[in-house]
Amino acid sequence: MSDFKKAWVYLENGMFFEARSFGANKTAIGEIVFNTSLTGYQEILTDPSYAGQFICFSMPEIGIVGTNPQDIESSSIFAKGILVRHYNEKYSNFRSNKSLQEFLISHDTMGIFGLDTRLLTKTLRTQGAMMMIASTEYSTKEKLKELLSQSPRIEEIDYVKVVSTKETYRHKEGRFSFKTMDYTLPQTKKKILAIDFGIKKSILRELVNAGFSVEVIPHNFNAQAIITAYQAKAFDGIFLSNGPGDPKVLKTQIIELQKLISYNIPIFAICLGHQLLALAQGYETYKLKFGHHGGNHPIQNLHTKKIEITAQNHIYSVPEDIAKIATITHRNLFDGTIEGLLYKNAPICSFQHHPEAGPGPLESSALFNEFSKLLQKTK
User: Is 21 annotated as a binding residue?
Assistant: First the structure.
């Protein structure tokens, strides 16, 4: 095994660990959450929704399949780092071209192994997500505690402006095909604007796969410009993406969304977009104790009564009283929280989970087609 440097981890509840570093050697501060996915660590790492967070994997063996160019979900790694039980240097996969260690270092991201991740996960379940610091530079509990106390909390930072695209662009590729080892190019019939709060490539591919031509625009959008374009029939609907952090931080975007809602433009939203819509309609979001992070979360479609296993990555949720203006279409079977809404006052549907399954099961991918049906009804 390589000669890995020592690393030290301190949590705001006072827990202190000595471990080993297999990523970038540095000091970083962020919120620690746990993820229960058994596969897909590269997609999870490159999900912009994890900006400002450390990911503790409950799956003990990480690194087995290396990394590859196809499974990158964004332009970089925005997470602060990952915490794992065992890191596997030797990887084996026919698509892999780089080890996880090389991938982390190339993106200046920390990787810590040799931790009791079972203990960490149980701690987060009982005490909730919390801030932490990891370092290969400082080894004392007192110094790490001091640095952590001087840093802003994740709720105080706007990570969306970091992860969102700076320029408008078109996305044309659909799902990856293992027959051709390339991305498909489906025919598209409807055009939508995708507002990028931290969008994943898998989501864009699923939108194209459902028959949408997609134009991705930055998070600091101008509602009036969008309304003018919609009135000129330049596009058919809007998609609000996933993204990191507390939705209440995005005060300007919430005001702009209120303008879009008032013009009855069809909107499809997931995750952060789902939460922003609730705030725009006057319903306060709240923070869950430890959130939902993983690829094995059961939800129920309240219309069909069918149960779907879904991919999730969020720590905020919408309130129950939103049922005054929206029909609750899906519920989480772990804790009963709201997973899906169909608004009564506008052609809007929104969902808390990640129907694109990057990584995760494809059971909720039909939601992209449901939005296509919603567009048909508005014509």
Answer: no
